[in-house]
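[stage:ingest] chain + small molecule (inosinic acid)
[stage:ingest] validated
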Amino acid sequence: MLADIVIGLQHGDEAKGKVTHHLCKTNKYTHVLRYNGGCNAGHTIYHGGKKFVTHHIPSGVFHGIKSVIGSGCVLSVEQFFKEIGELEEAGINTKGLVFVANNTHVISKNHLDEDGKDTAIGTTKRGNGPAYRDKYNRKGTLAKDVPELQDYLIDLYEEFHEKGEVKVLCEGAQGFELDIDWGDYPYVTSSHCTAAGALLNAIPPSWVRNVWGVGKVYETYVGAKSFEPDDPIFPSLRDLGEEYGATTGRPRQCNWLDLDRLTKAIKVNDVNMLVLNKTDVLSELGTYRLFSEGSEVALSSMQEMQKFISETIARQVKKPVLTFFSGRKDKI
Ligand code: IMP
Ligand code: MG
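[stage:predict] done
[stage:export] tokens:
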């Protein structure tokens, strides 16, 4: 029995899809499990030369692997069927591959309407927060009670514990800085984006092999708080990095990498495999800055920046973290 976990270490949009895609190709997983969030997430995946943006369906479907929406998620039934339709239309087989845990909560029309009025947090307006609120208020609706979902239901306990050997890739949504407990409350999402969040879906701690933490060599954030410093370099960074939301199309606010917060995310989530994406964007910009130990640091090249990051992490984390730096066109 084995589980690998992929999590975002920043504010979502770290290109986690690239890492899950790579892992699905190189490991014989029996399941890919989405373990938190709803259709607020937008996972951009390049498969067979085509671009796909999925919100609910785990990326296992692109590889013929059973894809499970776990009990830590909230599900929009309408979006779920829309996505299945889109994938099938694009030639991706979903039949017999997509499952919903019977104890997953669903997002209702009222949740959607209520979240649609949000201005305080800058949510994706997909009904996420109200659906989780009703779950914890014990007024929610479970997937098992939704007639349209009957053909897709599974029991996570039976699936993972009573059917033989399983090897699960746990695919996290959003990121540590948006976590309900560890993010910058209230500018957070309503689910557990940590590695611990995966365990809430019938994954015992002893199964965990690798925790893949994914970040970018700079940071982006979408939402109501002010995040981007007032400097014309950041709009340039946004355009070079194509930093516009996969779900809402909103421009993502940009800032330099905060290595102190990255270290915290690595430690809390026990990350042993680190991928820092989009190195090519800073190389194109020709500016290599980050924050470390409370100060802004200017480096002279991408190579020097990578060295600085690796050495700082090694010093602060005090256990091996295998680190990969990756540009958009690179394989991991
Ligand atoms: P909610 O998850 O829609 O309630 O939104 C709460 C906060 O999380 C807002 O700042 C959203 O922009 C942000 N958020 C939610 N999902 C994502 C995502 O997949 N990527 C980036 N930000 C997200
Ligand atoms: Mg995204």
